[in-house]
Structures are given as C-alpha cells and as structure tokens.
Amino acid sequence: MALTGVQLSVLLDIKTDRAFSAYFNPDKNDLLKEALYKAVEMAYATLDTQKIYDQLFKLIKNASYTPVSNQLNLLTSVTDYLHELAVQTRYTETIQTTVTAATSATPIIITLDTRTNLRNEEVDFTSAAGNTAINGTRYLKKLTDYTFALYQDAKLTIPISGNGTYTGGAVVKRVVRKYAKMLPPQRKIDVFSRGTIYDPKYSINNGVMQLYPTTETCTSINLDYIIIPPVLIDYQDNLVDLELTYPLRFLYTVMSECALLMGFSSRDMLLAQNSTTEIIQQP
Fold first, then answer.
1. What pLDDT sits at residue 257?
2. pLDDT tens per residue across span 147-158
C-alpha cells in the first residue's frame, strides 16, 4: 500500500495525539521539509551499519567526473550534491621504458626495452605512431618480462587489434586508482600530509573540491555521495507514493523528527521529549 503525504500527515497527527489547527497547517510542509533533511543528516552522521545505508539507498549515488586543473566545482558539476561519501581519484604514472616493437596482430603484442614492474594492469598509451590502435586506455597481459598483450577490458577477454606498422613514440603510463582522504585545513602546511598519487587527498572550499597532489594531473574521479532529497513531503498530496523514494523505516524517522519540531514550535516540551526519545531509541 502506498504511503502518500496525506497518509503520512494523518499518521503524524495520530503520533502527536492532536488535531493540528490551521495555525500549524501552513507551516506543516516547512516542518516536514526540515524534518526530512534532519533525518538525512542524522543517518549520514551514523553511516556505520548496513541498516543505515539501507535507509538512504535511494539517496546514494555514484558518478564519474573529469576535474579541471585538479578541481571539481560541486555547485555547477554535481547539482544534486549534498554530502560526499567516498572519492576515488585516477592519476597516471609515467613508466621509464621504451616500446621498441608492436605487432599489428590481434591482440597487439608490445615489446619493451627494459624490465619494469608492470603486471596485468590498466595503463594509458599515448603518442604511438604507425600502429595507432595502441593509443588509449589499455589492459596489459604479461607474457614475458619484456612483452605484453593489449586488451580493452580488465578481464582480458577483448583483444586490441593492430592497424599498421609501429614506427615508435609510444609513452606508457600506469593508471593509479586510489581512494582519497580528506585533508583538513590545519594539515595543509604539514609536509607529511601532502597528497601523492598513491595517497591522494582532497579538500572542499566554497563548493569546490580540490584534489592533491596538484603537481600531477588527476584525469577523473569516481564520487560516491548523498544527493539532495529528490521528493519533498507534501501533507496535501495524495498521489505520490513516498515509499518509491524512501524506505518506510526512514519515513518513520522523518515523522519523529517532525513531531520533535512541532513540540518545540508549540512549546510542548513533553511532545518534544517523547519524540527525542523515539529518535534515539530507533533500532
């Protein structure tokens, strides 16, 4: 059975044991909006169990973005952003080696002039001439200390086909994907807190996420974040099923938060106290 704003409002009136007068009705949507955001904030602050994640599962989003000069403007690029959960950066590290040969077969097999610590992993190739199919993001399959086959996917099931005679110039860069840690302002001057491509950091100021290190180019980031609640609760709406967006247990939390706000608004300290107890004791 759907739970609409009208039905939730009825449950809220029963929960507070009073039929709210017209004094409250014009403000009820404002109180419900505030209660909704407070419930999200409370869940965000206690994201330590799967149960809490389940309450926010429709509000958690993952998306990939391309930073500009190692910055991502959250206000313009991530317009539904509310809180970050995890930031994974993608940097590259140039490998000091030369591609001396590359076959025009399927898959392409490249030969390096030196031993490296490259394994079966993701790399970026640029500037390869002649056999230009080498260029791009590729996955290596190590054959010997000097030779590697090139694939399109991490599972090494889709080989890259050559398209010509290799004439040189290929630059090999290892792709480094790591989760970044927040860099508090007071730690920015600490040399031991400086970010590296293997231990990246980030800070958020004025709605802009700054990625560290800034001396290397971050080519992309994967951002897990909580979005702005997409559906507000309208106590007069009898059409929108709120459970399509929010789990029922979360809506109960919103009702408790709203009852708390109503208790404070009406100076009903008993109602406020009971609502606070319900919020704290929620399983």
1. 87
2. 999 999 999 999
Which alpha helices (DSSP H) does 169-247 contain, by range?
A: none
**Residue 240 token pair:** 């929108």
CA distance 116 to 110: 13
Would you say residue 23 has pLDDT above 50? no
Q: Phi/psi of residue 244, each to 5°? A: -75, -15
User: Cα angle vertex 58, ends 31, 200, to 5°?
Assistant: 105
> Structure tokens of 22?
């017209």
Lowest mean pLDDT among 46-55, 88-97, 249-258: 46-55
* Three-state DSSP state, 209: strand
Torsion angle of C-alpha atoms 270, 276, 278, 282, degrees rounded to 10? -170
Asked whether residue 139 carries a pLDDT value surpassing 50, the answer given is yes
> Which residues, at least 6 apart from 184, have a Cβ–Cβ distance to it below 8 Å?
203
pLDDT above 90 for 186: no
**Reported pTM:** 0.80
CA distance 21 to 17: 13
> What is the amino acid identity at position 240?
V
Rounded to whole angstroms, what are the CA distances from 252 to 181, 182, 249? 34, 33, 5
99 closest CA partner among 119, 121, 129, 122? 129
What CATH number is given for 93-177 in this structure? 2.40.30.180
Q: Where are the alpha helices (DSSP H) in 188-267?
A: 248-265
**Helices and strands (H and E) in the chain: how many:** 6, 13
Q: 10 Å Cβ neighbour count for 197?
A: 20
Cis before 200 (ω within 30): no
Boundaries of every domain in the chain: 5-57+230-280, 93-177
Among residues of the chain, what percentage have pLDDT more than 70? 86
- What are the structure tokens assigned to 268, written together? 């009903």
Give me 10's structure tokens.
């009825």
